[in-house]
Amino acid sequence: MMQKQDYDGPILEIDNLSISFFTRLGEIPAVMDFSCKVEKGKAVGLVGESGCGKSTVALGVMQDLGVNGKIVGGSIKFKGRDLNAMSDEELRDIRGSEIAMIYQEPMASLNPAMKISKQLMEVPMIHQGVNQKEAYDLALQVVTDVNLPDPERILSSYPHQLSGGQQQRIVIAMALMSKPSLLILDEPTTALDVTVEAGIVALVKELGEKYGTSMLFISHNLGLVLDTCDDICVMYSGEAVETGPIKEVFDKMRHPYTEALFRSIPLPGADKNARPLIAIPGNFPLPHERPNGCNFGPRCNYFAQGQCDKDVIDMAGVDVEHGHYSRCLKIEAIDWDAPLAAAVDTEVVEPGRTVLKVTNLRKYYEVAANALFGGGEKRVVKANETLSFEARESETLAIVGESGCGKSTLAKMLLGLETASDGTITLNGHDIESIGIQERNVETVSSIQMVFQNPFDTLNPSMTVGRQIVRALEVFGIGVGDEDRERRMLELLDLVKLPREFAKRKPRQLSGGQKQRVGIARAFAGDAQVVVADEPVSALDVSVQAAVTDLLMELQRKNKTTMLFISHDLSIVRYISDRVMVMYLGHVVEMGTTDQVFAPPYHPYTEALLSAVPIADTTVEREHIVLQGDIPSAVNPPSGCPFQTRCQHKDKVGNKCETEVPPLRLLADGHEMKCHLSDEFLDAMPPVIKLAQVS
Amino acid sequence: MNALTTWEIALHIIIQFAPVWVALGATLAVSIYYKDRLGLYGHLFDSSVGTIGLILVLFWVFTAIFADAIVTHDALAQISGMKNKRPGTAVRMAAEGAYEFYLLGGDNLARDIFSRMVMGSRAVLIIAPAATAFAFMVGITLGLPAGFRGGRLDTNLSFLANLVLAFPVILLFFLLVTPEIRSTGVPIYLAAVLFLFPVVFFVVLFQSRFYTQPMKRNIYVGVTLVLGLWAYSGLAFNADPLNVFYMEPNLLNIFVSVVFVNSPTVYRIVRGLAMDIKTRDYVSAAQTRGEGSWYIMLWEILPNARGPLIVDFCLRIGYTTILLGTLGFFGLGVSPESPDWGMTINEGRKLLSIYPHLAIPPALALMSLVLGLNLLADGLREQSLKD
Amino acid sequence: MWFFILKRSGVMLLTALCLTFVVFFLTNLYPNLEKLAKTQGNQRMSDAQVEQWLDDRGYTQPLLVRYGEWLGVVPSFRFTKEDGKTIGRCIKPAMDPVLAPNFCGVLQGDFGFSSVFKDNVSTIVGKRLGLTGWLMLFVMIVMVPMALIIGVLAGMREGSKLDRSLSTFSITTTATPEYVSGVLFIVIFASSAVGLKWFKGSSASAMTDITFANFTLPVMTMAFYGMGYIARMTRASMAEVMTAQYIRTARLKGVSFPNIVMKHALRNALIAPFTVIMLQFPWLLTGVVIVETLFNYKGFGWVLVQAASNNDIELLLSCSVVAVFVVLITQLISDIGYVFLNPRIRMS
Predict the structure, then answer these.
(1) What is the mean pLDDT of residues A533-546?
(2) Which chain B residues in 45-104 lie under 8 Å from chain A, judged by CB atoms?
(3) Is C264 in Cβ contact with A112 (below 8 Å)?
(4) Buried (b) or exposed (e) across C227-258, using 16+ Cβ within 10 A?
(5) What is the C-alpha separation between A160 and B246, in angstroms, rounded?
(6) Long-range contacts from A245-251, C-beta under 8 angstroms, 24+ separation
(7) Are C301 and C292 in contact (CB under 8 A)?
(8) How confident is residue B97, by pLDDT bands cut at 50, 70 and 90?
(9) Across A415-419, B83-87, B183-187, which has the greatest mean pLDDT?
(10) What is the H or E stretch that residue C79 is in?
(11) Minimal CA separation from B34 to chain A, in Å
(12) pLDDT by residue (tens digit) across A54-112?
């Protein structure tokens, strides 16, 4: 048990770190020549896409690289001591007490068979030698610190009895039990809902300030890093490509990758027609296929043959005084302020006739009270409650909501995987709400298709890509004979911009983005009129999201398809959709055109949702509205308005919100909302996002 | 003539197995040379456990194939004066050209133990894999719909499966594998039901995939029906007009019992896998395409369950081998004189404290085969996880 | 929870009824009855005489009726022979026909009369079950802890040398059924061939007095085979748990390795093996039969073999009932235990 030292210098100093994994294919370098410094009391953001090595760096700091990983170069100094040179016992002393880590999936990080109290109490008992009673008191204190209500009940629960947000707070509490000097957070909010994420982020910042903990914040979300960190370090393919104070780097980026990254994320100023997202061409280099010279070279707009692909490139200073460095040979040469190349002028497509009409759609499930043992009264889960909307040709209607809002149930009903309890769904004049998928005729089936969320699961791993598309063609009755279908399949591959030889590959040889493209090709194989895209890009890397989103829009333009875009990512929604429908706990709480929904007046939930989405733009000011509590369960919905348990405005209407379900009100042309708030209040609502004046 | 010493016995045995060594060596050499192109089988050679298992299994497979060349005497022949003789005893008054020693001694009916052990492998290696394959057909055809569709079908089938599983195996064997039962025709009824499953399986397999192309479908289904029903009529009812497919009643009895006992476990495993895989997105994608249930079960779910199923197949052959040995041990084997390992052990155990050489060879033979199958299964599991 | 147990007990009863009916059906097929008639009566009876003999004793009644009689829900058959003597199912030898009860089936506690042992079935089964009970007790005491320890040690560091050797040992034990290991053990430890006579090759004396000498070999034979599967399941479960994220959390909290295994991993890893152990009972029954036959230990398994080989219908039926109930009860315990041990399910 060590006494904590006081140390004035940087808490964490990573110098030219190199980590490699040794597998049966040989040595695979994961991190190369990475340097980074975390000063006392500051937060450093480590940003990059999947596979860039940021999590490996974190595990390297904790010295937990598994059987195959090893640090092959450089040093990691914690408070001046080299972590790599420490014995197992010394490491055990430091872990949990001086350096603590928070992970991505809170449920998996907690022991399902141990009570929360025991898991928390372990930390001070090991590191400070306190007895059980003191440890329990400490645990109680920390649980209160992380803003969890009813701490005693929580301490005596098991992890699965808590919600995702609560679990993550417990993980944070566990990390802070011993007041560590360094906190490493590895994508702590990726698995959580947006509104819950906002709460966690606020908590982390608050605790950081309170305890003076230094933080290493790993994320792929640039906006989140802007909200929480002081410094930033951008990684690409195992190397740090740009480091510096966060505002500096965001405003004056000096590496082509950073620039490309920013251009591929939908910021408030982006517009699908005037200023479309620009995807980064090409793919990540595989670890054993890295090019000579600059790793980013093959995909870089400013690539100079003979210069950028020769020797190893070191970090060069951009503004050494402020600590801003970049790994690029052409920092001075590139004109960073040049306006974007004139975008391809895409004509704005006007929506056509109504293709899909949904009226008063309801879906109720009956669930046994006790799922395992059966028996007990049946309870009703109201998954969807009186949904009504229309979708027209060539239009993109976004359905926005967090988990439990009923968007998946809606998608299932549209596709026939479930039948409606009440209401109608009319597709091209036919009522399909009670016709399950097995009874639908081929025409109906091929008219409405779906793109799924998880690219890693969307393709059958045992079948080649080509065969899966051909099967879709077979079932939809398209093409006469095998050769005709082969030809059409190859044409579809061209359509989604995949090389033709992919037809013979198995899914595991494709990347996430490529798999998703195949999924899209499959959905469009039957010339579908309505495509339901269920979070199609959420599981993809940021730079790939742009490409897939662009592809969807292009296909829609060509085929005049109606697209129902289900997502929780409001940035992409703002970019891609014409109309937006916001759902909460089975109800539509707001609906209108994109401009109407994103500008006041808002439904309080929309307001909170908009304020929760991190935006990677230093010029944008955002209101911060943090919702208390969690999303209620659909089995036990709140009385009256579903949102009233978390609404910050509900006291303005007396207790109407708790007793009556709000009526659907028509505000402006096509703008609907379900809220009790008075017109005056709504008109006076300030906008959540204020864009800087663009000169 | 003098009896052989232990070393000489060993040497002679090794020489007798010559065809096996040659075949084994050739197979291994070719496999290792091409191992990168042979998929899961090729990867097996990266695992020491799997390789050893494979060698043991291949050893017995080749022994069964080349049995006729390996045996020194006829497995059923009794040579007077050789009763219970120790290993390596010379055969008195050996006929011209006959082998001169009982390499592993004689049993209490004066038959050569070595030859009986070698011939015993043939019986096991014909019945065990075939019975396991049939059990898999039954288990898959019933387990997939139970896991995928659930509902009442699942409840009823699972009740039946539990019923069979709750039945003590040994009791079932004693009740089913008797001459009296054979005369009532109960085994034939069971065979009629169980042997139909492979035919049904393949017909549904081809129908679900090719229904969009009637010409192709008709060819596949037609050929399956013709071959399948032909074999079915021969094996189950002994009604094959061309007399190619035939199973003698005793063997049929045993075969049916073993398939019946193994099917519920396979059913459970397949059902569990189906319930797990049906939650994947590609299954939902197939559903939204309007694919029929059987297509999804057979072409989307089943191929992705092949890892655990292949592993279980190997293990189950081993288990069936043990079951066959149990049957033999209680005298329920194919025929009283057959060199079935279980029966030989049973015969030998009565004199075990004085004449160990009676029961040890078949015991070790059985153990090595099952060990090989288990090691092979373990190696396959290891490698399929790395895929 | 109680509703659950009630439902399961109902299913259990239904299963027991179905299974005993199947046994009843199979043992009462005509060729078996014919054999019974010939052994009880006269080996040289003609077919017509066999038919008559069976008819007299009520064996030609419809199957369900006879099953009902055996259960004790249908009044039993009586028949008066030409010579005035009344015989019937419930009329035991030397019993006055008038006093004999009308119902004599399982529900009344009457399990019938054994034709092989010439005694009441309940007495026979009771006594022999007790003997087997002792055997099973010792087997479980030896097998379960050993298997769990081997599994945990192997699984806690997957791929290590310890793991490899223990795994190979476990795989070997699953490849040696009782008739193989028993034979090998007898030869090594109890025969004159190897000469190590540490134990006795026959456990007949253990029926009255259990000692190391006469009981070690049968216990070892059964434990040896049964241990392999449990050890493998435990190892797999342990290895899976050790790669779980929450174990990494514990490690990065600074918990030492022994504590990780004991306090964090075990609780989660032992859930699956528990159910496996309970579900091993049906296979253990087969093992009991083999071992008792091999070592001359005249317990329940041995009785079962005698009953089956001689088509002693009453005894066979009662043995089936016992066997089936043992299996079903262990299944029930396994299900309850799984729910109980897994906090996720227990608390929902």
Answers:
(1) 87
(2) 46
(3) no
(4) bbbbbbbbbbbbbebbebbbbbbbbbbbbeee
(5) 59
(6) A245/A322, A245/A323, A245/A324, A246/A45, A247/A618, A248/A319, A248/A322, A248/A324, A249/A324, A250/A222, A250/A226, A250/A616, A250/A617, A250/A618, A251/A618
(7) yes
(8) low
(9) A415-419
(10) strand C78-80
(11) 18
(12) 889 998 998 888 888 889 988 899 988 888 888 888 888 888 888 999 888 888 899 98
Contact flag B285-A474 (C-beta cutoff 8 Å): no
DSSP string, A460-497: -TTS-HHHHHHHHHHHTT-SSHHHHHHHHHHHHHHHTT
**Rounded to whole angstroms, how far apart are CA atoms B91 and A37?**
87
C-alpha distances in Å from residue C198, one per residue of A209, B6, C214: 74, 26, 10
A476 vs B300: CB contact, 8 Å cut-off? no
Q: Which residues of A touch C253 (CB under 8 A)?
A: 95-96, 100, 122-123, 126, 174
Question: Which member of A450, A457, A460 has the closest CB to residue B288?
Answer: A450
Is the Cβ–Cβ distance between A547 and A578 less than 8 Å? no
Query: A78 is written with which tokens?
Result: 């914690």
Half-sphere exposure of A404 (CA within 13 A, CB side): 18
Note the pTM of the prediction, 2 decimals.
0.88
Name the one residue in this structure whose structure tokens are 């940003």: A47
- Residues β-bridged to residue B310: none
Residue A323: both structure tokens together: 């600590």
Best of C248, C253, C341, C345 to mutate (most A CBs within 10 Å, chain A):
C253
Measure in Å the smallest separation between the Cα of C103 and chain B Cα atoms. 27
Cα angle for residues C120, C122, C127 (degrees, 5° grid)? 105
Task: Name the least confident of A208-222, A475-489, C43-57.
Answer: C43-57
B89: exposed, middle or buried (C-beta count within 10 Å: 0-12, 13-18, 19+)? buried
Cα distance from B221 to chain C (closest Cα, Å)?
37
State the ipTM, two decimals.
0.84
User: What are the chain B neighbours of C19 within 8 Å (beta carbons)?
Assistant: 163, 166-167
Q: Which residues of A368-387 are buried (b: 16+ CB within 10 A; e: fewer)?
A: eeeeebeeeeeeebbbbbbb
Domains identified in chain C and CATH numbers: 24-108 (no CATH), 121-347 (1.10.3720.10)
Say which amino acid occupies B38: L
Tell me the pLDDT band of A695, cut-offs 50, 70 and 90. very low
Can you read off the two tokens belonging to residue B7? 């070393």
- Measured between alpha carbons, how far is B347 from C183 in angstroms, rounded to an integer? 12
pLDDT tens figures, B135-147: 999 999 999 999 9
HSE toward the beta carbon, residue A258, CA cutoff 13 A: 28
Q: Is the Cβ–Cβ distance between C120 and C114 less than 8 Å?
A: yes
Residues of B in contact with C327 (CB under 8 A): 166, 168
Torsion of CA B9, B11, B15, B20, to 10 degrees: 90
Q: How far apart are CA A566 and CA A533, in angstroms?
A: 6
Q: How far is CA A131 from CA A118, B105, C57, in A?
A: 12, 72, 79
Sheet strands (E) in chain B: 89-90, 101-102
